[in-house]
Design a protein that fits this description.
By secondary structure, the protein is mainly α. The chain has 3 helices and no strands. Helices cover about 85% and strands about 0% of the residues.
Length: about 90
Protein backbone atom coordinates (compact mmCIF):
# COMPACT_ATOMS: atom_id res chain seq x y z
CA UNK A 1 0.00 0.00 0.00
CA UNK A 2 2.86 2.31 0.78
CA UNK A 3 4.35 1.82 -2.70
CA UNK A 4 1.13 3.06 -4.35
CA UNK A 5 1.58 6.41 -2.64
CA UNK A 6 4.96 6.66 -4.32
CA UNK A 7 4.12 5.19 -7.73
CA UNK A 8 0.98 7.23 -8.49
CA UNK A 9 2.65 10.69 -8.15
CA UNK A 10 5.71 9.39 -10.00
CA UNK A 11 3.63 8.10 -12.90
CA UNK A 12 1.66 11.36 -13.04
CA UNK A 13 4.91 13.36 -13.20
CA UNK A 14 6.22 11.14 -16.02
CA UNK A 15 2.91 11.57 -17.85
CA UNK A 16 3.17 15.36 -17.58
CA UNK A 17 6.78 15.27 -18.84
CA UNK A 18 5.73 13.11 -21.81
CA UNK A 19 2.88 15.49 -22.69
CA UNK A 20 5.28 18.45 -22.45
CA UNK A 21 7.83 16.71 -24.73
CA UNK A 22 5.23 15.99 -27.42
CA UNK A 23 3.86 19.51 -27.24
CA UNK A 24 7.37 20.97 -27.49
CA UNK A 25 8.12 18.83 -30.55
CA UNK A 26 4.92 19.97 -32.27
CA UNK A 27 5.55 23.65 -31.50
CA UNK A 28 9.13 23.49 -32.78
CA UNK A 29 7.90 22.08 -36.14
CA UNK A 30 9.52 18.67 -35.75
CA UNK A 31 6.65 17.00 -37.62
CA UNK A 32 6.15 19.48 -40.46
CA UNK A 33 8.18 17.92 -43.29
CA UNK A 34 8.43 14.18 -42.71
CA UNK A 35 8.66 13.17 -46.39
CA UNK A 36 11.57 15.31 -47.55
CA UNK A 37 13.78 15.21 -44.46
CA UNK A 38 15.47 11.99 -45.49
CA UNK A 39 16.04 13.24 -49.04
CA UNK A 40 17.52 16.57 -47.95
CA UNK A 41 20.87 14.97 -47.13
CA UNK A 42 21.14 13.47 -50.61
CA UNK A 43 20.09 16.70 -52.30
CA UNK A 44 22.65 18.71 -50.32
CA UNK A 45 25.38 16.36 -51.54
CA UNK A 46 24.24 16.77 -55.15
CA UNK A 47 24.26 20.56 -54.87
CA UNK A 48 27.74 20.52 -53.38
CA UNK A 49 28.98 18.23 -56.16
CA UNK A 50 27.48 20.53 -58.81
CA UNK A 51 29.17 23.55 -57.27
CA UNK A 52 32.57 21.87 -57.29
CA UNK A 53 32.09 20.71 -60.88
CA UNK A 54 31.15 24.24 -61.94
CA UNK A 55 34.21 25.61 -60.17
CA UNK A 56 36.42 23.14 -62.04
CA UNK A 57 34.76 24.04 -65.34
CA UNK A 58 35.42 27.72 -64.72
CA UNK A 59 39.07 27.12 -63.95
CA UNK A 60 39.59 24.67 -66.86
CA UNK A 61 39.43 27.27 -69.70
CA UNK A 62 42.10 29.41 -68.03
CA UNK A 63 44.37 26.39 -67.72
CA UNK A 64 43.87 25.53 -71.38
CA UNK A 65 44.76 29.08 -72.42
CA UNK A 66 47.98 28.86 -70.40
CA UNK A 67 48.94 25.59 -72.13
CA UNK A 68 48.31 26.98 -75.63
CA UNK A 69 50.43 30.04 -74.91
CA UNK A 70 53.28 27.83 -73.73
CA UNK A 71 53.09 25.58 -76.82
CA UNK A 72 52.79 28.37 -79.41
CA UNK A 73 56.58 28.71 -79.72
CA UNK A 74 57.05 24.99 -80.37
CA UNK A 75 56.43 23.05 -83.56
CA UNK A 76 53.24 21.07 -84.21
CA UNK A 77 54.94 17.71 -83.55
CA UNK A 78 55.14 18.42 -79.82
CA UNK A 79 51.35 18.73 -79.61
CA UNK A 80 50.93 15.41 -81.40
CA UNK A 81 53.30 13.77 -78.95
CA UNK A 82 51.24 15.08 -76.03
CA UNK A 83 48.09 13.50 -77.46
CA UNK A 84 49.78 10.15 -78.01
CA UNK A 85 50.99 10.04 -74.39
CA UNK A 86 47.51 10.44 -73.03
Amino acid sequence: MLSIFLLIPLSLMLFVVAIWAVRYAVKSNQFEDLDNASQRIILDDRQERRQTMQAHERSAPTQQKDETVATDGKNDNSEINKDSEI
